[in-house]
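Schema walk-through. Below, the input block comes first and the output block second. Nothing else is stored per chain. Lengths vary across the set, and this one has 124 residues.
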Amino acid sequence: QVQLVESGGGLVQTGGSLRLSCTASGRTLWNYPVGWFRQAPGKEGEFVGAISSSSFNTRYADSVKGRFTIGRDNAQNTVYLQMNSLKPEDTAVYSCNIGNNNIYGNYVTPGNYWGQGTQVTVSS
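--- output ---
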């Protein structure tokens, strides 16, 4: 059974940084595309970014481009989301997902496996 667990959330001031981790059990992540999503209270879920199965390609929502970075730590079977220059509007529950990929290994659509999410709160 595949399980994803996010960690690393917390409370940080505007301009601060956090590093979220998405760790898998029951499946190695290194050859799967993984996406990050977030959902703020009262708002719809939002795509944050994704990394391809090869790790060669990453893409980000315009709202986080240049501030967030997705990478892998294959030794830990983890995909991380490095978040810098955080803003109050980044406050949300962040979740990771093993996605469906195209022939190039790029993340295309969400798959069936989601973590439970980790809360990120950015104070002004």
